[in-house]
Amino acid sequence: MRTATERLLICDLTQSYAPHGGGGIGIYLRQKREHILEQTGHRLLQIVPGPEDRVIEQGRHIWVEIGADHVRGSPNYRFILRTSAVRRVLEQYRPDVIESQCPWILPWTAIGHRRAFPDTALVAGYHTDFPNTHVYRVGSQLFGDFVGRGLRQLVAGYAHITYREFDRVYALDQAMVDVLEGYRLSHVDVLSLGVDGQTFHPARRDPGLRRELGLPETGPLLIYAGRIDNEKRADRLITMFRALPASLRASLVMLGDGKLRETLMEAAQGLPVAFPGYVGDRGEIARMLASADIYVSCMADETFGLSVLEAQASGLPVVGFASGAMVQRVPPALGKLVTLDDTAAMAQAVVDVWQGDRAGMGQRAREHVTTRFSWKQTFETLLGEVYPRALAKSAARMAALGSVRWRGDDRTCAARQYRT
């Protein structure tokens, strides 16, 4: 039986990806690569979309890009549709563990590969509650709540059919484990993400940022970092900003790109709101966060809130909606949450935080996240708990098939016998 203490070939399979900067999946992949190469003897194969097919092998790290088009409205992201190309890469390298990062299409490519090579252990990361975020929210807005709930139930069935095929699934907090249990999935672990407290630090504060962005140098500087699209409910931030009292003399930075960016830039004309666009340098993102005063977010369905952790590590209190993972990320001592979509109440919360113990909230926020969330802990849990359980399930599957431990040509023969 293979164990996580052996030298494994681990594969990350990612369907949607931006090559630089933000995006939780991209950050996770970079942090995982660093941990695997520096702290273990494992090999790591990472498959992502790119402008063209290419393979870069550097020691124990194999970076594979599958040629893919840009995501419409999000030009920094690409989305893999050429599953045959992915299958060829998997068949060439035959990883011991495949970790699927996205819910659409490629999980079934991994499942198909495992059916051909049944000793492959499959792990799925449940980073987004897509039946609710991608389907119900949109469906209910377009067709009404009844239809939206019906669509959510249908896609929840897809989630069950898909993820029951994986040896282990991990969610980012216990609340999402409970959601997956509602989808009749019981083989789920909790894997909290981490924050780089050295990069995201209050010491990066730059008093010159406002002048650089053409913003007033008085009043609170609010900041949001993430995709500017419907899923993140970014339009509510402009509505909230308009509800702030003029006497507050606040400014807002909306850092990122997305489908709503140009629309919101037009809507914010005449307001002290800056849209710097997509920033790929993590140190630059950290500088902007540390140079602000309050982090604001209108997200409703966040499953973890990595951007919130980075803002807190930068010493910022957080104002947002009491929904999704925001409830776990922002206890009362670290900011203020209000009823979902109540932008007037959110504006008042900004005033209350600015006029209250803002510095104390920011200091407590940094202490809270840097003592509880680290990437080291994330990957020790992944390699020490999640992967061993998946590998044990793989071993049990092989035993049920009447197989023995095999490698090389024997592996190919056994896989062919399984296919027939």
Short synopsis of the structure:
The chain is of the alpha/beta class and 420 residues long. The chain has helices at 24-39, 83-93, 106-116, 130-143, 145-163, 174-182, 209-213, 235-242, 261-267, 282-290, 306-313, 326-329, 343-355, 358-372, 375-400, 408-419; strands at 9-13, 16-17, 43-50, 54-58, 61-67, 69-71, 74-79, 97-100, 121-126, 168-171, 188-190, 221-225, 251-255, 273-277, 294-297, 318-321, 335-338.
Based on CA inertia axes, which overall geometry fits? globular
Structural class: alpha/beta
Q: What is the number of helical segments per DSSP (H or I, 4+ residues)?
A: 16
CATH superfamily of the largest domain: Glycogen Phosphorylase B
Topology:
Elements: E1 9-13, E2 16-17, H1 24-39, E3 43-50, E4 54-58, E5 61-67, E6 69-71, E7 74-79, H2 83-93, E8 97-100, H3 106-116, E9 121-126, H4 130-143, H5 145-163, E10 168-171, H6 174-182, E11 188-190, H7 209-213, E12 221-225, H8 235-242, E13 251-255, H9 261-267, E14 273-277, H10 282-290, E15 294-297, H11 306-313, E16 318-321, H12 326-329, E17 335-338, H13 343-355, H14 358-372, H15 375-400, H16 408-419
Parallel strand pairs: 1-3, 1-8, 3-5, 8-9, 9-10, 10-11, 12-13, 12-15, 13-14, 15-16, 16-17
Antiparallel strand pairs: 2-7, 4-5, 6-7
Helix pairs in contact: 2-3, 4-5, 8-13
